[in-house]
Amino acid sequence: MRKILRSVSLIVPLLLVLLLLASLLTVFKAPTYHLWLLAIAVTEFPLIFVGITGVLTIACCWVEKYQSVSVMIGMVTLILFISPVVRAYVASSAIKQNFNKAFGPGSTIIKGDNTQPVFNFAKLLKGAGQQLPYSVLTYSNINKLTLDFYPARVGGKKPCIIVVHGGSWSSGDSRQLPELNSYLAAEGYNVASINYRLAPQYKAPLAIEDVEQAFAYMRQNAEKLNIDTNNFVLFGRSAGAQIALLSAYNRPQNGLKGIINFYGPADMVWGYSKPASKLVMDSRAVMERYLGGTYKAVPYKYFESSPIEFVNKQTVPTLIIHGDNDVLVSPVHSQKLDTKLAKYGVKHYYLRLAWATHGFDYNINGPGGQLSTYVVERFINSVCK
């Protein structure tokens, strides 16, 4: 028995110290790639870490040495792990009001109901969300490109959300983070999550042309797919957000009513000058593969691929969502885009999540996932009237 207690006395404090170090990722930016992945877990699945820390803190009652220090470490760690939940709750109180300021009174009302909470503690206990069936359709026979089509679960012609996945322009596919696709389909929107040609084999602006082909396919098959061609919304994450933004700003399509930007690089010139840490990602190499060379070799490609350069008074309404602790795509991209849109009087809303990192929406029911899902749905409802 004494040996067991002695082992507990050594193991519990050590585990609490490790958890304390992990909990710091709710406040500070991740310094390496693997710690970035851990940061997503600790900020968007906080109750798991709160539970583990709570059990270990209680176990300190059987710790012979360093008991008071261990309890103190446990309490601090608990506070840090729960902080994303508290910060999401605090942020949620102003979202409805601020969104209404951006898009007009009543823009947060869905189906006549303005009582839906922005943030719900009970949802933190839920899983990743429902998975609705979808169809795989070929939208470009020449380039053999497919999309996953989630039909609206409400009858009649409905708006269509075209989703462009992330993956540093060289990886990823249409199955990336599908939970929001199912959620939007259940709420009465058609969703088309597309694949596009990837770097380094295919370089900019070919991905933009693929988006245009997707629009053409949707129009040609609008009757069969029950698509309202007067109400399209582009949606992109990370590299996919750069593609979606550039398409919306530089090559706007008929019927396009808005663009949703999840942590996308809006200024490729600035992004190349201020790269991410190589311990996380070699962002310059990523951009060079996509654009075909260094900034010194092909500066015009960086300019032509910067969505921020094409903002004007006719730019479609924009929703920006970015975490301040993003270590892959700096939140400065979104701050600069927010300023540029405001300068030209473009309707837009910028949701800043102080604790969140890149890919925070991996959990649709996490603190960041709940807030972002709320504004995404309100944005679509507002622009697709």
Automatic annotation (TrEMBL):
| Keyword terms, alphabetized | Hydrolase, Membrane, Transmembrane, Transmembrane helix
Please verify whether the record's keywords include Nucleus: no
Residue ranges of domain BD-FAE-like in the record: 149-341
The entry's protein name is Alpha/beta hydrolase fold domain-containing protein
Signal peptide residues are: none
Bilayer-crossing residues are 45-63, 70-90
State a single Gene Ontology molecular function: hydrolase activity
Can the keyword Disulfide bond be found in this entry's annotation?
A: no
A Pfam short name: BD-FAE
> InterPro entries, from UniProt?
AB_hydrolase_fold, BD-FAE-like_dom, GDXG_lipolytic_enzyme
